[in-house]
Amino acid sequence: MLNRERKKTQVNQLATGFQNSKASFLVNCIGLNVEQMTDLRKDLKKNQANIQVIRNTLSLRAMEGNENIKQAYTPFMKGPNAFVLAFDDPAKVAKIIDKLDEESESFEIKQAVLDDKALSSKEVKALAKLPSHEVLKAQFLGLLSAPLTKFLSTIKEIPESFARLLHSKSKK
To answer: Using alpha carbons only, how large is the chain's radius of gyration in Å?
Structure first.
């Protein structure tokens, strides 16, 4: 049994997590063994995220004052739940929990909230399939540099072709 102070602490931690996180994910992780749960916590910590297992009544208290989160999660507040809070890159966290969802029968993504918008489990899976932020930056920079590279190679070709022409005329 949790005492009153411990319950208040859990509610405050989750409420603060909702406010400070870029995304939150409601998952069912009951049935994961200790090793899987430990690995999940480590992977989440590396990506500036955490998982918090909390009773449904306490999590509903933590949602008070944040109507978007409350509306998104209340219909799914049946059975055992945990919240994954992403403080940096939600796509990386989505990849981690999607991978575990595919590998484990007992792990389930129920719902998510990203930028105050509710996402279904299918939308979370789609988010997980997106390339990482770094890959998207690299692709964008590649698109920006391609026309310039072609333009410069075209400009460079003009004097080179002229030099080849002079060289062939001098040999005759």
So the answer is: 26
pLDDT tens digits in sequence order for the chain, 172 residues long: 578 899 899 999 999 999 999 999 999 988 889 999 999 999 999 999 999 999 999 999 999 988 889 999 999 999 889 999 999 989 999 999 999 999 988 899 999 999 889 999 999 999 999 887 788 888 888 877 777 777 777 887 777 777 777 778 777 6
Q: What separation in angstroms does the CA of 79 have from each of 7, 36, 51, 75, 99? A: 19, 20, 17, 11, 22
Q: Is 76 within 8 Å of 9 (Cβ atoms)?
A: no
Single pTM value for the model: 0.77
**CA–CA distance, 150 with 154 (Å, rounded to integer):** 6
Whole-angstrom distance, CA of residue 170 vs CA of residue 111: 76
Angstrom distance (rounded) from CA 164 to CA 47: 56
- Enter the CATH code of domain 4-130: 3.30.70.1730
Residue 163: both structure tokens together: 């030099």
